[in-house]
Design goal:
By secondary structure, the chain is an alpha+beta fold. It has eight helices and four strands. Strands 2-1-3-4 form a four-stranded mixed beta sheet. The termini are far apart.
Amino acid sequence: MSEPASISSGIAARYATALFELAKETGALVALESDADALTAALSSSADFGTLISSPVITREDQARSIAAIAAKMGLSDLTAKTLQLMAAKRRLFVLPHVLSRLAAMIAEEKGEVTAEVTSATALSDEQANTLAATLKARVGKDVKLKTAVDESLIGGLVVKLGSTMIDTSVKAKLAALQNAMKEVG
């Protein structure tokens, strides 16, 4: 791991742990989970938000004002809003994506659930997602939260990553395996 990545990871871990512990002590884990999900969605859908948290050109004061307005508009909990304000004051907003992923992992562990990354050729219906979650729950013995993505290049099927296990049932993978088998023969 490179040194800057290690430093960022360490900073993110400290903020995530502090925020998680405070939320746990005050019984605000549900609100924290909701806030983390909302911030993750905002980061993935808004390039401007990503620029706000990572640009060295934006002053601390502008970051703090902007993040306060965003927190108020999103209806974030007081604990999350104050943490974001502190991060802005300390010029640490650039680690927010790492903080959010660390928080998601800590909350999932606290709830006894695991997250499965599912990539499919087309968007899964609610029924398909529920069936997949139930099947994975039966396999791992814990509640499974699905993080879905669409990749049309798969042609069909799914790629499921659950912890260190990856299950690839995509048509793309099957075609690649068939192509390799044909190369070995010829």
